[in-house]
Amino acid sequence: xxxxxxxxxxxxxxxxxxxxxxxxxxxxxxxxxxxxxxxxxxxxxxxxxxxxxxxxxxxxxxxxxxxxxxxxxxxxxxxxxxxxxxxxxxxxxxxxxxxxxxxxxxxxxxxxxxxxxxxxxxxxxxxxxxxxxxxxxxxxxxxxxxxxxxxxxxxxxxxxxx
Length: 162
Description:
Layout: H1 9-13, E1 16-19, E2 26-29, E3 37-45, E4 51-52, H2 60-66, E5 69-77, H3 80-85, E6 90-92, E7 99-102, H4 120-129, H5 133-145, H6 150-161
Parallel strand pairs: 3-5, 5-7
Antiparallel strand pairs: 1-2, 3-4, 4-6
Helix pairs in contact: 4-5
């Protein structure tokens, strides 16, 4: 990979620098990531777990493929016929999915391409709160631990910014 040159991660994580035998370019080599569970949010899926994503390609699909257990939340669960209308958009097939959950605004405060933009105000609130351990703890108490479910969380922000 590129982008970690000069970073302390090379020393902390024991990453190595390697030279490409074809181009002579320098890259960072690191061990593969082996998560126990991958949780990802997407645009749509059918009841079987055939997941379709829109927008620019992200590393989410690689993450999902790396984990033995996969939980996918989507903006909407649609009939299989709708999935079949555009089969090339299906990037995670049903046999790779352990659980599928319909969760509108499940990517909040991040964006979900074609459904909603990032909630920049909330992201700024999180960034400011995470400047200190106390601030981060206060944020988590308010928005994560202090709500009974996603619906209650959305009630806190829906009328304000969505």
